[in-house]
Sequence to fold (189 residues):
Amino acid sequence: MLSVLETLMLPLSRLDGEAGNKRSIHFENETNDLVKKTFGLDCYWIGQKKINNGKGEEREIDSSFFIREFLFLLECKSVNVSFAFDMGDKRALEFRKEKIKRAFDELNDKVDFIVKNRKCLSYPIPQNIKYIIPIVVSPFAEYIWEKSDNLFISENLPRVLTPNELGEIKEFKDLSFLINKPFTTILPD
Fold:
């Protein structure tokens, strides 16, 4: 299924405008289906939904799941793949790097919103959640510009995951190593 998704997304990834928006919605749908299948409905929080705080403020959650006390918040980014990127052009790599950085900024805003409004969200977070882990999901392997704790979940697993890599999170028996990562947010009581 994952290789089929990647094959379908390559020609679509070169589209902009309305077709590009349809591609993004399709990618979010597929990611949510994959999350439900991989982690189970019992571990699925929400996806493709806006959460609000009852004061007119809202944020859209592309997808999410939890494992024990860890809530994984996913931002789906289906960034156009240019021929220059395929060729390794420095400007194309820089363009994608900036898109990914903006995706992390969006995630940080959503995490802050959840923390600030955790007691009055329209979709309450599960009671056992103590940590929020923000992750970007892309249909293609992305250029990771540096080997740092902020860009890697583990030694070999980046924070910008393909759908295929997403399931690798389930393979960790113990997630306590995530507690001290710079991208992990600890929920206050």
